Structure to design on (62 residues):
């Protein structure tokens, strides 16, 4: 079960837009693992993690 949490806005974070394709890491193109869904500035943000390059990727719905 995924828990919805509330986070403060992160000023230097890059948010990627969700598409119909499987989500891939912007650095190494590996598949991402969904860690949690959080609310940031009243918008659902999907927090993903890349095991290959140890990168956290934030994805929003369009």
């Amino acid at each position: 079960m995924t828990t919805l949490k509330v986070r403060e806005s992160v000023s230097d974070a890059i948010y990627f837009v969700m598409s119909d394709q499987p989500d891939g890491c912007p650095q190494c193109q590996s598949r991402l693992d969904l860690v949690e869904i959080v609310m940031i500035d009243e918008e659902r943000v999907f927090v993903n993690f890349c095991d290959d390059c140890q990168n956290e990727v934030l994805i929003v719905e369009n």
Notes: The two ends are 23 Å apart (CA to CA). The chain has one domain: 4-60.
